[in-house]
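pasting input
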Amino acid sequence: MTLRGQCHCGAVRVAIEATAADLPLRACQCGFCRRHGAVSTSRPDARITFAADDGALSRYRFGQKLSDYLICKACGCYVGAATPIDGDWYAILNVRGVDLPGFDGRTPEPMIYDGETPETRTARRKARWSPAVLTALQLSA
Amino acid sequence: MSAAFAWRAGGCHCGGVRFEVALPARVEAQSCNCSMCAKTGFVHVIVPESRFRITKGADRLAEYTFNTRVAKHLFCSECGVKSFYRPRSNPDGWSVNGRCLDEVDGLEIVIEAFDGKNWEANAASLAHLSKEHA
């Protein structure tokens, strides 16, 4: 099964190959996610695909600057994040930002990642984040 | 300005956009279920014009409009955070995002559901929030 979502204006579109019931729902408590009201999902066996109109995506990096936080330039929606690890892309989706279906009524698990080193952060992401296809975004790992 | 209000600061994630808003100790805020607010998780703290000021980064704001184009959805062009905007329900005032306040010590924010999916039927209930002498 494939779940699909998009930003408000539709310039950025996402998909994840899973059913909502099989996906976790996490509420990172960092300042970026709190301000965006973000709740995230990913699973190491559920592929995520991003597609965007030409020039539609903005990439924001902060903190350890390991990941690209993907924001629609037109409507400002934070759709998800992607990080290159050993030449491959790994990603999460912002369930709220793309209005991914099937999560109504779920309570997200609060997550705090403070104190991670770049190495432990990358290891956690490699274990939990989804493999990602970003070819349409013309990003290089 | 009544002594019942205190100026509080807030802003986006990257620090490029900053604002101040004068709030009482107890604030009624709205969580809206419309297509736009559902995507941003915006917590609406609606105030009159005189109780809000942009202190940094007005030139970093990007604007998005849709449908009637009355609401001016403003977000930081760097980090995407929507700290405040001109709401369609209160175009004479501002809606500040409760998620973007620096600190909420001494502030009680009571969040109530607003049925923005049925905006036309419900918007009038918010109009008083941006009146200068409400």
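fyi Strands of chain B lie at 6-11, 18-23, 26-32, 43-48, 52-56, 61-64, 73-76, 84-85, 93-97, 108-114.
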